[in-house]
Amino acid sequence: MSSDLPALPDDWSRALAVAAHPDDLEYGTAAAIAAWTAAGRAVSYLLVTRGEAGIHDLPPEKAGPVREDEERRSAAAVGVTDVRFLSHRDGVVVEGLDLRRDLAREIRRARPELVVVPSHHETFGPGAWNSADHRAVGRATIDAVGDAANRWIFPELVDEGVEPWGGVRYVAVAASIQPTHAVDVTGFRDAAIASLAEHHTYLTALDPRPVVEQAREVVLMTTGGGEGPARVAFEVF
After folding, report:
1. Count of CB atoms situated within 10 Å of the CB of 61
2. What residue intervals traverse the membrane (predicted)?
3. What is the CATH number of the domain that holds 64?
4. Can you give the C-alpha Rg of the chain in angstroms?
5. Range of 83's domain?
6. Could you give phi then psi for residue 207, rounded to 5 degrees?
7. Which of 22, 47, 201, 216 has the most CB atoms in a 10 Å sphere around its CB?
8. For the whole model, what pTM was predicted?
9. Residue 12 parent element (H or E)
10. Cβ atoms 92, 98 nearer than 8 A
């Protein structure tokens, strides 16, 4: 249980939160991000795709811009204004050197001390398979943290004027099946609910219920339920 886990270290001032798709960070992690930004920490978002394949009745060329706009508004709801997109193809993200290079470039640019990554594990628990995009982005981001620190890996980034960054102190895996730390998000559930509810088009396509109702259900589930401490768990290393 997250209530039994030690607090995630707070000796950092800048974070980069990486996700495969718009809405990924809003399934729990946004509550922690709201707590961080309220405490004066700087958080940037990096989306590997635009989520263009995520709405069954909206073609990718129309869904992509809609989902990008929803993500920017969602980020603003928890105090994040720096939102970047890499434009890898949604649903078929390739874990390889191109992705690692793109991630390393943005880590060097953002110069974070904390990097939040999607779960690289195969499942979210019994009967809940993790998507290929999440797993690929999670693993590639973990590798890219090391790549960002080494000027001899992707030396072309130095030629671009992007200098190495070895200042990442912690990598925090969101929605991990083996969490090690937690963040107290008491008082920040409402911000997280508002953040997820900004994904109106996406949530409406999934479920006919009002989006705020859906968002509240998700945030309560991912922050410890309606009773007891409100916490978000991470696997930290």
Report:
1. 8
2. none
3. 3.40.50.10320
4. 17
5. 2-236
6. -155, 130
7. 22
8. 0.97
9. none
10. no
